[in-house]
């Protein structure tokens, strides 16, 4: 079972999230938190795999909570951040703080479930709706030159990396390149290994930071 904590200051939102996640046979919502500070406390006291956390909360916002959880909890659960398009400043901070995934609050429930499962496996998932707008803004600072490690990628791996950065899912990349979805997963895994990155989220950040894809 994927032991999960829900953190949101709105009771109806917590109820809706619990309804979605508890319906899955492999996910168990073990507790809830009403703000970031309580989320950190419960992450320390409970044995959790994933924290689903709203980025805008009182007492301690989601970004600060993610940073506390990733830095002070051992072993640290993965964090899936819930966001809306009007809190970009929180989203950018959450990327840097170590969130493993991002899902818009109005996205399909299946995407949240997929994000929780991916996070529990040490992978990352960014809602495709978030990628193009939010990650471009995250990368509007001057890009760093592409490191020499980039030369380790094959042309196809680089192509897949660019598609990932533009917000395409593995299935969409497979259709675009006319290959199997399993082949795409292999290319993503190899790109992560060669670049020394942990999750798909880090691939997206890497691509924009190093101007591998355009931010315009």
UniProtKB/TrEMBL annotation:
Pfam family, one: GerE
Keyword Cytoplasm on entry: no
The protein's name: DNA-binding response regulator, NarL/FixJ family, contains REC and HTH domains
Species this protein is from: Lentzea flaviverrucosa
Keywords per UniProt: DNA-binding, Phosphoprotein, Transcription, Transcription regulation
The UniProt record lists the keyword Transcription: yes
GO MF terms held by the record: DNA binding
Residue ranges of every copy of the HTH luxR-type domain listed in the record: 146-211
Residues bearing PTM 4-aspartylphosphate: 54
Domain Response regulatory: 3-120
Protein's GO biological process: phosphorelay signal transduction system; regulation of DNA-templated transcription
